[in-house]
């Protein structure tokens, strides 16, 4: 059997089997959103961003189990996360650069949640209205 070793953040190396059977397929959508042209509240106001994200999660048919959004003060950005029963949504804003990072990941263990993830991601991306979105799609199988 082929094995490989991994070192992470100074932790001792561990040996892992090269072939692992996955039992939790999912979809991971990642966006680097440059040149965002949106309402200032979506870049600066943690409470407004949290409310918008929770509404978008519900509209997409996903299940929020908790959320935390933090403002970096006057004129600063926001970092936030919604923990989903299906996995998570996270975002970070840099209003001084008109830049947002967006991350939506869903597991599809008992049903395919890919369409819901795509709807959530699209609604958030469209709200930030980026001039230059760099989007990544990772299918976890």
Instruction: Give me the side-by-side strand order of the main sheet.
Output: 4-5-6-7-3-8
Would you identify the regions where 5 or more consecutive residues have pLDDT less than 50?
1-8
Helical residues, percent: 10-25%
Overall spatial form: globular
The chain-level structural class is: alpha+beta
Mean pLDDT: 89
Distance between the termini: 22 Å
Number of helices: 3
The major pleated sheet works out as: 6 strands, antiparallel
Q: How would you spell out the order of helices and strands?
A: EEEHHEEEEHE
Question: Could you please describe the fold and organization of this structure?
Answer:
With 141 residues, the chain is an alpha+beta fold. The protein has 3 helices and 8 strands. The protein has helices at 41-44, 46-60, 114-128, and strands at 3-6, 14-17, 26-36, 64-71, 78-84, 87-94, 99-107, 130-140. The strands form 2 sheets. A 6-stranded antiparallel beta sheet has the order 4-5-6-7-3-8. Strands 1-2 form a two-stranded antiparallel sheet. α2 packs antiparallel against α3 (114-128). The two termini are 22 Å apart.
């Amino acid at each position: 059997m082929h094995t490989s070793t991994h070192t992470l953040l100074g932790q001792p190396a561990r040996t892992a089997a090269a072939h692992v059977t996955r039992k939790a397929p999912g979809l991971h959508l990642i966006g680097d959103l440059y040149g965002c042209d949106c309402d200032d509240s979506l870049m600066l106001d943690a409470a407004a961003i949290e409310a918008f994200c929770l509404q978008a999660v519900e509209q997409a048919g996903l299940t929020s189990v908790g959320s935390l959004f933090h403002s970096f003060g006057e004129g600063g950005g926001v970092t936030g996360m919604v923990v989903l029963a299906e996995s998570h949504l996270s975002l970070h804003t840099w209003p001084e650069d008109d830049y947002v990072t967006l991350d939506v990941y869903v597991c599809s263990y008992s049903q395919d949640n890919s369409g819901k993830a795509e709807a959530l991601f699209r609604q958030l991306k469209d709200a930030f209205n980026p001039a230059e979105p760099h989007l990544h799609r990772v299918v976890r199988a």
